[in-house]
Amino acid sequence: MTRNKPGFATLAIHAGAAPDPTTGARITPIYQTTSFVFEDTEHAASLFGLQAFGNIYTRIMNPTQAVLEERVAALEGGTAALAVASGHAAQLLVFHTLMRPGDNFVSARKLYGGSINQFGHSFQNFDWHVRWADTDRPESFESQIDDHTRAIFIESLANPGGTFVDIAAIAAIAHRHGLPLVVDNTMATPYLVRPFEHGADIVVHSLTKFLGGHGNSMGGIIVDGGTFDWSASGQYPALSEPRAEYAGIALHQTFGNFAFAIACRVLGLRDLGPAISPFNAFQILTGIETLPLRMQRHCDNALAVAKWLKANDKVSWVNYSGLEGDANHALQKRYSPSGAGAVFTFGLKGGYEAGKRFVEGLEMISHLANIGDTRSLVIHPASTTHRQLSPEQQTAAGAGPDVVRLSIGIEDVADIIADLDQSLAKA
Hints:
The chain contains 17 helices and twelve strands.
C-alpha cells in the first residue's frame, strides 16, 4: 500500500490478498483441498506444535479462508480473525473458549431470535447459562454480574428492531468487572460501526448477511480486538494456563494480542469442527469488495422507505433509527453517522393477521429468514423467527405480534415502495 492507513474501500478490496505467487492469478484462488503437503517431518511437527504458522488441514485453516480472515480483521481494526461455518458457529466457539460448566454470561435481551434460542436452550447442554439485560438500561447488565460471569454480549445494531446500542456504556461496565465485551456487528458491519473503537474486545459476524451480501453462502467470523488481558484474573484458563495438548504452551503468554483468535482455532475449531468451505469463503470475499457501495445504498433506500411507511395511514408505527424524532436517533448519529442500516420494523394497524397478510401479498420483496441481501426481504417474526418465544418474550425481544421486519435491498427505491403499496392495499 502507498499509504500507512489505506481507506475502508481500499481495504475491502485488497486487505489480505495478493496475486497468486505460482500462477499470477489476481483473484484469490479457491483452494479446494482437504489437506496440505509438509516439507518434512520437522516442518509437520512445528505446525502441529504451534511453533510455526502454516496449513495443515482445511478443517483448521485454508489459504482462501486466511484471506477472508485478514480482510475482515483489517476492516474491523482487529488483530486477527477466525472464519467458520456460520454466525452461530462463531458464537459457539467464542463461548467454548470463555466458559466452563456452571459459568454464565449477560446478554442483551433484544437479539436475533436464533441467538436467543442458542443462548437460552442449546447452551444449557454445556451447563452455560445466560442472564438477560436491557440495552436501554445499561445498569441492568451490571446487576446480573456475579463471580461466575465470564462475558457480556450485545448486538451493535439490534435485530430485528434496528436499534443502536450504547456500546461504550456497556463496555465500561464489562471492564469495571474484568469481563470481555462481545459484540455481534452483523447488522451494522464495520462500514457503519467499528465496535473496537468503543470498547469491544471481541466482534462476531454472520458473514451470511451484509458482508457476503448476496444470499449465496453461509459463514461466520470471530475478530480478536487484542486488548483484553486474559491472564489478569485467572478466570480464562483456556488462554492463561499451559495446554497439555500443545506441550505446555500458555496461549496468551505465547501469542499476546491475538491469543483469543488462536484459542478459538486450535481449541474450538480443531475439535468441534464447524469449518467454512473454501468456496463459501471465496464467495464472501467477493461480496466484501462492494460492501461500502452496498451499505450506503441500503441505508439510503431504507431511510426513504421508512419515511414513506411513517406517512402511510395503514401503518401504526415505524421503528427506524434514521428517522428524526425516533427514540434511538441520537445513538444512531453518535455511533453510525453514515446511516442507520437496512433493517427495521414497523406495525400494521390490523395487528398479527394483517402482518401475515401483508407479507403474503408482496410480489418483488422476498419472504424468507435472512437479512443483508442485495434483494429486499421481509418476515413476520412472531410467526417465524421468534415463534418459539412466549408473547411476553416476543415483545421484550422487539418481535411482538404486529411487528413486520424489512431488510431493504439495493433495488430502485420506487420499485420497493410500489410493492409495499400494493400489498398494504390488500392487507
